Amino acid sequence: FQSSYVDKSLPFTSPKWLVNKPKFMHLPEEEQRGVSVIPLKFDPKDSKLVENNAYLNDDEFRKNLNNALTLVHSNLLTGYTEFDVSNSNATWLRLREFLYQELSRYSHKSFSSSSTLTISSLLKPTNPKELVQHLLSVDQISADTWKSILQRQEFSTVDQYYFILKNYFSFIKEQEIIPQMTPSWSLVDRGLDISNPSEWFPEARKLKRTIIMHVGPTNSGKTYNALQKLKNCPRGYYAGPLRLLAREVYDRFQNEGIRCNLLTGEEVIEDLDAMGNPAGLTSGTVEMIPLNRDFDICVLDEVQMLSEKDRGWAWTNAILGVRAKEIHLCGEESVLPLMDKIVKLTGDTLVVNRYERLGKLEVEHQPLANGLKGLKSGDCVIAFSKKSILDLKLRIEKETNLKVAVVYGSLPPETRVKQAKLFNSGEYDILVASDAIGMGLNLSINRVVFTASYKFNGVEVVPLTFSNIKQIGGRAGRFKGKKADGSSKESIGHVTAIDEDILRDVRKGINAPIQYLEKAVVWPTDELVNDLLSYYPPGMKLTVLLNKFKTDILKSSTKSFELSYIDDKSKVVSTFEDMRGLTLKDKLRLSNAPVRINPMVMNIFKKFCETIAERRTMSLLNYPLPFLMLHSRHIKDENVSLEFYEEFHQLINLYCWLHIRYPNLFVDYESAIDIKNHCEMMIFKKLEFLKKNPYKKFNKRSQSKNSSPKNRYATKKSYRSNSY
Amino acid sequence: FLAHRRYMHSGVPLFQARQSDTSGTNVTTESLQEDEEVIFFSQDKDILPEVEIKPFRRTKAETLMRFNDRFVQPSIDWYRKVGKSHGENTDKDEFMHLLRNDISSSTLFEETLKWLSKDNYKLRNNTYNGYDTQEIEFYFDPSAIVSSTLMPGDICVLKNSPFELLVCVKTPSEAMDARFTFANTDGNVVYAWKTSVHLRFPTIFNTTELEILQREKLHGYSPVGSVKNDKDVTFVIPTLPRRMLISNVTFRIADAAVQQLPIIKKKLELIHRYLQSGSSPWQIPILKLVEICSNLELSNNIEKSIATAFMKSGLSSDALYSLANSHFELSSKVPNKVECSRLLAVYWALLHQQGTQMWGEMTVHRGIFFPSAVTVLPLTKQHLHYHNIIHKLRQHGGVRINRIAALINENDLASLNKSFPYIVPLLRDYAAGNLEHNDTITSLISSLFRKLDEYKELNISRDVCFDLLKRINPSEPPNPLLINHELQLPVNNERVKLEQKIYDLAVPPKIEHSAEIRTEYKDLICYCIDSPDAHEIDDAVSIKSLGGAKYRIYIHVADPASLFPEANEDGTTINSPVLDIAYQRAFTTYLPDKVFPMLPTTYARSSDLGQFGKPTKAVTFSVDCTFSKSKGLCLLKDSLKVELSVLHKSTRITYEAVDELLDEPTTKPKSGKHEDLKTLFYIAKALRRQRIVDGGAVVFENSSTGIVSLSPDDNSELVEVSFKDQIETKSTILVSELMILANSLTASYFEENQIPGIYRGYRPLNVVEDATSVPEWVKAKTQENKIISKADIAKMKSFLTSSFYSSLPTPHDMLGTSHYLTITSPLRRFPDLVNHLQLHRTLKGLPLLYKQSQLDGMVWHILTRDVTLKNASVDAQRYWTLRFLKKEIEDPTKNNWKLQITSLTDNGYAHCVILDKAFAVGQLKINLNKNPPLVGDQISDCEISNIQCLDGILQFEPTSRSKIQKKK
After folding, report:
1. How many CA atoms lie within 13 A of A611 on its CB side?
2. CA A491/CA B866 separation, integer angstroms
């Protein structure tokens, strides 16, 4: 971009780049510093100066001018702030400089006719070079015009001079001095300030919002009440933490004949009427909640997730920005103090409804006696992946003659309800379930059995937090229905584990006091990033800006907010950052893509980004994916590992994620589903084969991860799968 | 994602893919060894339903079939249909290589070049971080903006997604839905009303028949297109035109804009400091701002680079910062070629900097779909002042806001004003809408109101702010809209205050009569027909019988131009300050609360007509015609005479008096006056007939109702609201038809004598398919001279656009005249005064005052003021109407209204208006489960549920008693 200024980055680094201090060269030396001198001093020796100088030759004019200058000096050199005063002083010097310049050139006789004094140039002066001529031609305007201008019946020449000087003074100050002396306020280090992110959502701030908190342990019916209010409001949104919870609410509303749309990261179903208008109610994930439309009621579930390092920003932005008169937040007690702080900032009203546990919760003293055989009817065994759930089902059925039902995420909804009924009715004795499931399902469990105190969170294996343990354990002791007299039967929930170590962790978790959350995680809106990016020189990299956010944060004191993880975001962004063809909006959207940092996924992800950059229309089969591996002969083939198929599966999920955001670029969802089914079969068959004849040589990687004895029970190989 | 995109997903049974021959029998999993057998698999039989695992070969085949039917075929159909018109031989192999989805966008770009209009792009070769690309720059010609309506192929920016470029792919095509169709770079289809188009680049492509939007064929698979108004009718953007035309072009323009945005922001900040004009807001044409940006080279010597930039942009002011006097030059010359991405970068930069009170509103003219100007806000009073206020209010965690809230709650207003003097001006600016784009201030004001006992339960709105302001400062004037920045009334604009003082002292110069040759009309009676309280009498009409059926019609217009020396000299510069100030105001401002005249009252009084017996100067347009009841009217156009004149006998007569005369049953005219007016009326009716029949004019018989008029209450504050209706009567037809005659005849006079002037045009929306039935139906209705019902007007309104000023002869379809040059109200419209000055120079054989290039620039300023003042008048009338309604519904029994639906349902609401109250426009909440009402239906007994007078928000809810009356 051709700009010839010497220091290209000057406008972007110093606020003084557009300051251009006047130099007052025409002022005599000693006047340039102080503003105290009033009379004008001309150098008597310089003959040209003296010869036609009205100031020197005409005493009357000199006396009046000096008096007028004294008035200006005493009245106008004022200011509230030191900056005002310095501007007034600079204007005073500039005014005198014009006087010196013009006086040395003009005398009564020789001023040109074009700049005669008219009412317009008197009231609205536009060119300080005509100052002296106007002073010398005051009587060109009739006396009664002067009277109405000065609003005085009698006036002296000094008053006229003062009026002219005053107008020129304010003209010079407003049009030259202030514009040239004031530094730029759009400073480059304004940076990201998250001390009060509620300012990012002005439309929401205007609304008088009521935030109703439904606080209590799992299965205490808190979400149920919020959903009842949502059902009969014309425009509402249910925001769940997971795609599957959103799907569950969508299915429930549809079954009750209530029109509802589904809006999640991987799936969009619009419930259109004959005219093509979508339904007023929507169930979706929290990342997809639209903040630029008005709603009557919004329900945000599992609101304690707002302090989760990588996804918490979606909840915080939703709470701060949703434009609904009534907002229901369902979550744990631990979020209350933080919500108090947030509500003070936004000024909304906060109503707290507490829900108590139905019945007591007891942690048993002993773990299960001799492993799975210790299970009894009404037990619910918790596992953390679909594979481990199905594997446990087979082993329990083999080792005991108990009947086992299963409930996990990617089960189709009808099957989930059927399985729950089988278990509740007692037809099946044991339920094997994943931790996140149970919301909205009545599961009458009297004992919860933990099989591990570790969990794979999609990236790595992490210990269960106290709140996880409380949430899972809390599922036990669900009331078994009404007693004859209508009061709910007193039911005590039991919690145990399969071994001593796990039980110790579980007991610590259940009995731990509530850990109150301190900070909500935030992330700037796209508009804000767009605005901040445009304060840097062209070609500024997005990753550099994102990393700069960290330094910005240190500056702004943030008691109740912190910034979401940047490292994974910038790692993902760096893969496509320099791709010509991607807009900032694309880059910000892609920075949230569910991408695991491993070679095969990253390589294909780059190709997906190229498709967007080139705006091509592609189907999954146009990409160089190892489709030929989808053949039954590879099940027994040892050098094709299970992880290979899992990465393949992640890529298919990524394709579906992109399909929702770019429906005309990533097309043919049907083929993605076919390939996904095929891949899932290969994974299952591969697993079955591996169980019958485990690897000859031990798989190094999985061994190191699970060497800790504590996890004795976990199956020999830690198959990390996240597709529950 | 929700808006108008439909996609049935795995939850719903898919159409059965076409049965391919290889679907094998239901084979159990044991026989895995056979190659490629179709197997059904379930991880746990009794839990999961079995899923068909297709062998990859079959998935591939099916995918190919689906892909071809859904995505390849539409592109082929498109190219065959449109490629032909582009001189491409569309036989099979020629363009098929374009369809391969691995073709890169740059190779596709060679093909794109064939579709671009030659003189609107320039190719430049340069290296772009390492690899050589052919950089392309797109241009548009500002005159194309004024001379065209929104067409397919125009590249647009919509109001609610300002940072995205969309291409218009289809103009309104359905009678019930006046929305345009746009497509973005990803191929998503967006439907939007004409009022949401805030910027457009016309004629980038060399044709408007792009036919990019196609109806999706029933290919047997689940549809991928987007729904508009019918669940089963979907539309698609074929891949080839999307990639080749939309993605390739919009990305290059947007990307170039993004690259230069940071530098443009710095330049605009610098330029803003040298556009200061008497520390008051004023409106600069955006095209001039873009030109200054292009000419500005940032360098260490700020003063020099600014001086050269302004000089190159046509500003010769010697004192760099005295721009106040070069208003005229600044807004009178406009470049003829503007680079699209440069304008887009300036547009985006302005959007960002609006948030820092550097720039005010961007005025968008609805008739030309383009931002004509942006308001330059004063550096000290707005930018620096509010930077300071925000800093103070945010400091130390907002302790000052708490202090202010405490003082207000204790009602200790004296110390509030003493220690926080900036609160009253802040509330005043917010109520006036001058802080509309400042998010930070909105949040700070909201947090203040949340701490005020009286207001903390309310939604924050400009009404609430004004309510508090009235409490703190009871003497606050009743209508805060008057201090709006764009309106520029003296009440809060220093420069305009000084200019008004200049006006008060201005005395029209005495110019002797002898210098000009003027026709003396000693005995011709000139009738000045106007309402009794008319401020300025602009026009008068006369008629002289030439025997038999022959008459000569005279239209006399006031001659304020004669008061300006510029009318008699041969120079081309504007010297008289009154003319420069009149140019800035451009129109007399008519608001219910205030009339702010364009010219000084002394000038208006000494040049308006209507004093009997006092010789007054006028400009007279006269033409012969033959008229008889039987043979009708025949105008003898070449008998047109345009002359300067002196009227001796002009008499004032009110519309009512004329109507009384015209309604008298007696056929024998009582007096000369009666005779003249009767004949003039018949001629006027015949003129209207001709305009309708020959010119296809559209005339609304029914008048606009619910015009607001204010009267003082007991403490003489203008707050009592009453509604008047502008009824069309015989006298109004007489006057309006003769004025239209004068304006259209003068238009042809200006063209014949090649005199540059300011015209007024109206260009109908480009509607296609069955949407064309609406304008045709209206024309037919007016031909048969039938009254158009209110319901039909409601239906039609969304298909109408607004008229605009142009410096080139442009047709005015609504009036049915080929060209229309406004000449009949020089006292209150500057374009008319311009045309008068040009006439003076022509009639006196002097060189013209304004050149064509000057008028091309000036028209942008005139367009801006026309829109600004019309919007201000509408806003003020809506404000007073809503204040009236708010007072009415204080008595709940009165809270039921009859509404007329004026738009389709969108997001649960439909636009509506209260019958016979034109400015009571609002939204009716629609129960989504019942079928929504259509445009034109009427609903009775609706209740006002939410009313905000200043924000113009009026929301209704149907009650149990509400009944829908379907209109034909």
Report:
1. 26
2. 77
- Nearest-Cα distance to chain B for A491, in Å, is 30
Cβ separation B251–A615 shorter than 8 A = yes
Distance CA A589, CA B923 (A): 34
Chain A touched by B461 (CB under 8 Å): yes
SS3 at position B721: strand
Asked if B299's CB is within 8 angstroms of A663's CB, the reply is no
CA distances from A485 to A482, A507, B735, B780 (A): 8, 35, 89, 78
* Among B465, B476, B405, B412, CA closest to B441: B465
**Distance between CA A262 and CA A243 in Å, rounded?**
10
Asked if A717 and A690 touch (Cβ cutoff 8 Å), the reply is yes
Round to whole Å and give the CA distance between B855 and B142. 13
**Span B694-740, pLDDT tens digits:** 887 887 765 677 888 898 888 888 888 998 888 888 999 999 999 99
What does the alpha-carbon distance between residue A235 and residue A233 come to, in Å, rounded to a whole number? Answer: 6
Residue type, A449: V
Alpha-helical (H) ranges within B275-412 are 286-295, 302-312, 327-330, 340-354, 385-409
CA dist B651 and B763 (Å) reads 38
Please state, as a whole number, how many other Cβ atoms lie within 10 Å of the Cβ of residue B602: 16
- If one compares B169 and B132, the residue with the highest pLDDT of the two is B169
Is B358:B383 a contact under the CB 8 Å cutoff? yes
- Inter-chain touch B163–A616, beta carbons under 8 Å: no
Cα–Cα distance between B148 and A308 in angstroms, integer? 54
Sequence-separated (6 or more) residues with CB below 8 Å from residue B816: B691, B692, B694, B695, B696, B697, B698
Q: What is the pLDDT of residue A634?
A: 83
Q: Which residue has the higher pLDDT, B695 or A211?
A: A211
Burial of A474 (0-12, 13-18, 19+ CB in 10 A): buried
Count Cβ atoms below 10 Å from residue A145 Cβ, excluding itself.
13
Alpha-carbon torsion (A105, A110, A113, A119), positive or negative? positive
> How far is it, in rounded angstroms, from Cα B668 to Cα B13?
84
| Predicted confidence (pLDDT) per residue in B630-662, tens digit | 888 899 888 999 999 999 888 889 999 999 888
Report the alpha-carbon distance of residue B833 to residue B377 in Å, rounded.
Answer: 29
At a CB cut-off of 8 Å and minimum separation 6, what does B903 contact? B798, B910, B911, B935
Q: Are the CB atoms for A300 and A319 separated by under 8 Å? A: yes
B40's tokens: 């059904």
Phi–psi pair at A394, nearest 5 degrees: -60, -45
Question: Whose structure tokens read 């004191």?
Answer: A557
Q: CA nearest A43: which of A123, A86, A126, A100?
A: A100
Q: For B439-500, what is the HEC assignment?
A: HHHHHHHHHHHCCCCCCCCCCCCHHHHHHHHHHHCCCCCCCHHHHCCCCCCHHHCHHHHHHH
CB contact under 8 A, B63 and A628: no
B383 and chain A in contact, CB less than 8 A = yes
> And the tokens for B390?
């925000």
Tokens of B922: 């609002």
H-only helix segments in B480-552? 494-505
Residue with token string 């007024």: B760
The encoded tokens of residue A426 equal 């007692």
Q: Which candidate, A437, A434, A369, A426, places its Cα nearest to that of A403?
A: A426
- List the Cα angle B130/B135/B137 in 5-degree steps: 150
Cα–Cα separations (whole angstroms), residue A527 to A74, A570, B354: 49, 18, 14
Determine the residue type at B272. Answer: H
Distance from CA of B191 to the nearest CA of A (A): 13
Positive/negative CA dihedral, B513, B519, B523, B526: negative
In a 13 Å sphere around the CA of A414, the CA atoms on its Cβ side amount to: 6
